[in-house]
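thread: overnight batch results

M.L. [08:02]
morning all. the overnight job finished for the chain we discussed friday. pasting input first so we're all looking at the same thing
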Amino acid sequence: MSKRIPYIGAFLMLAVICSVLLTGCSKSLQSQSASRTELVMSTVVIITLYGEQAQEGVNAAFQKAKDLEKILSSQNEKSELHQVNQSAYDHEVEVSDTLFTVAQRSLQYCKETDGALDCTIGKINDLWAFGTGNAKLPDEEEIIPLLVDKGYEQVQLDEEKRTIRFLNPNIQLDFGATAKGFAADEIKNMLVEEYGITCGIINLPPCGHSGPVFDLDVLPAGAGPGGGGGVYLHGLPPDAFEDQNAAVRAGPRGPIGDGGTHCLLGGPPAP
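M.L. [08:03]
and the structure it wrote out:
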């Protein structure tokens, strides 16, 4: 129970910070808002944006999330990742730039955490049957045969050919701990660059949780409402926690941890 207190405290602090800092959005921006809630990437996604193109931004953001889900979902049998998991042990599989990038970053995080984060345990995750309506607690006898020591070393990436190959038959990739963070980054970048959105909240919480712990980053000068700087909260895992099995150390500026909430906030007007 005590290990959940930092999560709850962090979420409450996030709510207070967002409520206060969102008041930094100019009244003209606040009068032009759009919000939507939808089930995407196996979680309830909430996006609220402010600005002239708020509605267009919300629509584009959800479309982006759905497009990424078609690539990165391990549960959707039509996803690109699912096809890779079915074939990559038999032969190398050429993949999209998006899938290769997420695989490359995820495997790097596995290496940096010495396997505390392991994106190669897809077959073990499947034993719980989450998201199928028939979730169950697997027996130890089912789990042990699928355990692979340092499975992240059993995945071969070819950056030039953009291919993935598994060197062990018990390996399947599952980006449940990194895909939402990657998606939040992609959506944020798209909104800023293509729609001029600098004020709003993008919430892709981890499945079954309120949200991750947050780290502050600053948008460049001129990016916020009125030409000022801006601030957003970037979802990171609670790396200060002692239990490494419950949370892993963050890679350098990486979208890691089960969830990737961003809070795009306007800063003060430029002088």
